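Sequence in, structure out.
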Amino acid sequence: MVFITGPLYSGKRTFAQKLGGTCCFEVQKQAETTEDLEALAKILSEKYDIITATEVGGGVVPVDATERANREKAGRLACLLAARADCVVQMFCGIPTVLKGELPK
């Protein structure tokens, strides 16, 4: 599995699709609706070859408690997915940086 994280931009889907395989985009939204992040990470990593999540941890901390909790869940899910991934790629300004493993050929 390849896990891609970073700010969402229009070319992200194209990059993920070029890698081939089944893709799941914006998984941080799924973290908001689950209590068992371990189970969600397991399901996602077994079902998809490529998973993307937008980085939500930077910037100003939300005042709203629910938004803070959702941001925390998204970060925890990203850590769980990165631990399970063979390859972790951080996207920044459309430039992929491999943080773990190697991109598939």
